[in-house]
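Batch manifest, entry 17 of 40.
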Amino acid sequence: MNIRLEQAKDYREVENLTREAFWNVYRPGCTEHYVLNQYRTNPDFIPELDLVMEEGDMIIGHVMFSKAEIILDDGSHFPSWTFGPISIHPDYKRKGYGLKLLNYALEKAKEMGIGMLQMEGNIDFYKHAGFDLASKLNIHYHAEPRESEVPYFLAQELIPGYWGNREGTYCPPKGYFVADEIPEAFEAYEATFPQKEKLRLPGQLGYEE
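Output type: structure tokens
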């Protein structure tokens, strides 16, 4: 197993990996591969934390990081960061590869002086990498009531004392919504990949029997 920086020659392979990893997970089909495609030229993208994991000659994992911010209760903007999508090839899921990749990336982020991270994910997995509910740090999620303990909104302070006793609201970086904002561009991009069946499945956002 090897973890290294993504290179330009990896782009299409990594985007296909991301598509395979997220297909029909959170919605019928997925958009994460397009987010990645567009994010590489986004000023919030952090190229030093654009990492791939290899097993032999095959790329089996990828993670990217982005600058973000928290709007404090006094209206000022506090610098923070986020990550994702993090992708593991379906054949290598539930074998510990995702946690190895994430822990490696978190150490690199800390070395770079990144103080804290927020993200949306399953706490049952991400707690093993040190994440907890963001509400415990008085960080609120923009799309939920302020008093809510949002189970999928997580945070971790990488540098002790970085956040202090502040309180504020986190908004995901704008680039994460590019597929919804420019649907025709996304559809044209998606058409360059092999066709796959989109399914409505239990566990997806908004699923109802």
